[in-house]
Amino acid sequence: MIYLDNSATTLKKPEAVIQAVTTALTQLGNSGRGVHEDSLKSSEVIFQARQSLCQLFNGEQARQIVFTSGATESLNLAIEGLLTGSDHVITTALEHNSVLRPLYRLQKEKGLEVTIIPADKKGTLDYAAIELAIQENTKAIIVTHASNVTGNVVDLKKVSDICQKHGIYLIVDASQSAGVLPIDVQALKIDLLCFTGHKSLYGPQGTGGLYVRPGISLRPLKVGGSGIDTFNPEHPAMMPTALEAGTLNGHGIAGLGAGVDYLLDETLEKLNQKTRQLTQLFYQEVLTIADVIVYGDFSVKERCPIVSLNLGQRDSAEISDLLSYEYGIATRSGGHCAPLMHEALGTKEQGVVRFSFSSFTTEFEIWEAIKALQKISQKG
Asked: What range defines the domain where residue 71 resides?
């Protein structure tokens, strides 16, 4: 199978990630639940992963990195933990349902005011419209760093400047960008950064986290065992324990830490120079196919390694199935959990076929995908 569905999850991992998980399964106890060697090993591995993530994102303190099961839990924690029914929040049509559904629920159950900034037919935002939407009770702007449908990148500096000007929080969904694009939470003044581990950070599924700027206090989604302060009826308030009730996924975090270390060692610039070249090659070649329609803005250099397309009016699921069963190429079709993005692109009914690449993708695989699309198009 030629795997070109890396925006859903990276299938090919660095060898160090596999080794880290294998070792963890046989050597790590429960972090914070004892002073014996196996428990302490687990605590050390988890701490090192926090340190690596803090370095990757240029955070102030490693304890501000909170581990979760992935970006969905991180976004729920950020949204539920920060916003109340009296608040107004601004978000965009680029967002994944992991942003939209928590907001819709708070809107329905508690009266949260939500403004959604539309996207144009290329999936780009009008930044002036964001500032015009600010109200007296606006508490936060929630924005994806990069669209999981088009690969378009949001200018976080522009959004951050708006937030700083009006004294509101900036919450960023980095599901697609973490491990692909440099993210400096201090320079960009990001208050809450939500990320997943199983995509371009090369970690296992069921891993992810949340960076919380020092000074921000979130209401936890869950409380319970913490390994400290057992006789206190209140959950401990110190970070990161305040937001990490229960046993952490030490085995998965070991793999995530190894994935981040791999990125730090190889550098984002080196790894993503390759994916940019492969993405551009694929994009340029598929444009020569007569009935292909490509979505997104490819006039800018900075973007995630995604090319989404359709062949004429044919259903995207049909094309994706043909790619898989006849040519052995894995892609993702449909709505990609981003309904408003598809409304903007005009693909609500048809969906799109998404090709997404990683640093492990080869030029041979790119050409095989191009040839497969040419054959499918010619067959009609």
From this structure: 15-266
Tell me the per-residue pLDDT of 163-217, one tens digit each, with 9 for 90 and over.
Answer: 999 999 999 999 999 999 999 999 999 999 999 999 999 999 999 999 999 999 9
Decide: 106 and 112 in contact? Cβ < 8 Å: yes
Residue whose structure tokens are 């491990």 = 179
Whether 213 and 339 map to the same domain: the answer is no
Could you give the C-alpha distances from 295 to 122, 150, 343, in angstroms and in order? 6, 6, 12
Same domain, 228 and 277: no
Asked if 320 and 297 count as a contact pair (C-beta separation under 8 A), the reply is no
The crossing angle, in degrees rounded to 10, of helices 37-57 and 15-27 is 150
Look up the CATH number of the domain holding residue 293.
Answer: 3.90.1150.10
The CA distance from 167 to 215, in Å, is 14
Co-location of 256 and 319 in the same domain? no
pLDDT in tens, 332-358: 999 999 999 999 999 999 999 999 999
Question: Active-site positions?
Answer: 337
Residues 6+ apart with CB under 8 A from 35: none
Other C-beta atoms lying within 10 Å of the C-beta of residue 93:
21
